[in-house]
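This section describes the prediction task in plain terms. A model, or a person checking by hand, is given the sequence of a single protein chain and must write out its three-dimensional structure as a string of tokens. No templates, partner chains or ligands are provided. The sample shown here is typical of the held-out split.
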Amino acid sequence: MLREETPGQNILYLYEPGSYAPLARVDRVEGEGLKVYYFHTDQIGTPLELTDSDGGIVWQATYRSWGR
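The expected answer:
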């Protein structure tokens, strides 16, 4: 996915060149400006955490064997 749009909000995803590994997410909320979040992935590009510009964790994944 490259972009999500809803009334008043746009979300842009940035990926590592030539890969499906996500690097960042840029949120534009009407009246609030831009917020940038950074993906932290494992060795194969699976997202593990999403952090804000201050380094705070805003999302964290828990995976088990076989993609569960």
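For orientation: Strands lie at 3-6, 9-15, 22-29, 33-41, 47-51, 57-60.
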